[in-house]
Predict the 3D structure of the following.
Amino acid sequence: MKDLEKFSENARRKIVSEVLSGSVSKEQARNIYGIRSKSAILEWMRIFAGLPRNAPVDPVPLLKNMSEEKDDIQKLKEQIKHLEEELKLSRLKGKAYQILVDIAKEDYGLDLEKKAGAKQSKDSKKKNRK
């Protein structure tokens, strides 16, 4: 199982994908990538398919699973990009609100920042009960 440790998961997925797509045979892949174990590629196929060690490997569903994973990865990348944009906008809003508070304090003498340990007024307590 030294071949399992020698190759990163991305490298193993690439090799399995090449074998499953038919661009190279298992034997050719072993020679190209210097894989010593005769069963390593088959073992990787089982691992990526979530199959038990001795289960037969059907390449069609395995290819489908690998392409679905690529789609999932692409969706996650898009979601990360969207969330990063939202975070950037939130930070800008925070800066804008801070500038607004600073202007209100400097120009109008209003202190809009909440003080630590501030208690709710009696009038607002009555309004909240209704």
